[in-house]
Amino acid sequence: MDKKGLYDTILNLENQAKDLADQLAGIKEEVSEMTQENHTLRMENQYLRDRLDSELSQKSPDSQVPDQVPPADPNNPSGLTKSRLNLENIYEDGFHVCNLFFGKRREGDSPCAFCLEVIYGDRDQKQD
């Protein structure tokens, strides 16, 4: 292969690599958007389920379930409410639950003080 042909081949491979990198970046962005939408829909679905449960429990007062799970429950040693447990699960899946970055993916699963405050803050206050 002559020098010009080799140079043209290298340029062609470089252009193909750039195109593939652009395609990969586009796919990555789409996956991120779909993941955020998925979590938003899961949260909405959970909210609607909780609301349906509360509506059904109001109709039959014998089957009311308290929002606060007792700390003796081995599934919930932290004593968080159901809504805070849901937020904790979303946070552990790598998404922000704070009002500043809600629904955005946490970079490298780094901790967020705002999210932790939303989940674990003000637990000693009396709940209405």
Number of helices: 3
The count of strands amounts to 0
Spans with pLDDT under 50 lasting ≥5 residues? none
How much β-strand is present in the residues? under 5%
Structural class: mainly alpha
Average pLDDT for all residues: 81
Helix content: 55-70%
How would a crystallographer describe the biggest sheet? none
What string, H for helix and E for strand, traces the elements in order? HHH
Q: In the residues, how many domains can be counted? A: 2
Bulk shape: elongated
| End-to-end distance | 80 Å
| Radius of gyration, taken over Cα atoms and rounded to an integer in Å | 24 Å
Organism: Alloiococcus otitis ATCC 51267
Keywords: Coiled coil, Cytoplasm, DNA replication, DNA replication inhibitor, Metal-binding, Zinc
InterPro entries: YabA (IPR010377)
Region (Disordered): 49-82
Question: Explain this structure to me?
Answer:
The chain is 59% helix and 0% strand. It is mostly helical. The chain has 2 domains: 1-64; 65-122, no CATH class. Helix 2 (82-92) packs antiparallel against helix 3.
